[in-house]
Here is the input.
Amino acid sequence: MRQILKNAFQIILFFLIGVGISLLIPQNNAPLLLDNEFLITFTGVVLGISATIVTFIFSSTDKVKSVLESTYATPEKASDVFEIFKRGYTELVQDSSFIFIIFLLFFVAAGWSAIDIPYVSMPITLPKPLVLNAIKMGLFVNCLFATADLFFSLSNILKLALYEHTK
Here is the structure.
């Protein structure tokens, strides 16, 4: 439960940072960063890279286990380190899943920006482009942090299996 609250707090914090950044950007001069095509392409590429990483690590799990068993002096120590490896792999999967959700939300934001319903309007204090840019920037900042976490988790897994705790 504590980890779920920590993750939710981080997501909300990064989203609010993105909203704050978007409020600093003049609305009449929205940068390429907030363009629907750029955001979907960027997130799709990051999603592809993360899926490749998860697939690569999954396909080499048996190899990593055998390397750990041959690297550590006791089977108990190798088993402990393999449990750490599995937790790192779980984090990679969670980061990839989160990036996929962000990818889908960018499609929703792109659809919302293209739809204009005549009888439904935003309040005058919150124009639709301002709200959309805030949402997009909040999602983009979350995507950047999930990508960073993905690569840091990968580097920790590689350090765990290859460089640390030798006999």
User: Anything to note?
Assistant: The radius of gyration is 21 Å. Helices lie at 2-24, 36-59, 61-71, 75-114, 128-163. The longest helix spans residues 75-114.
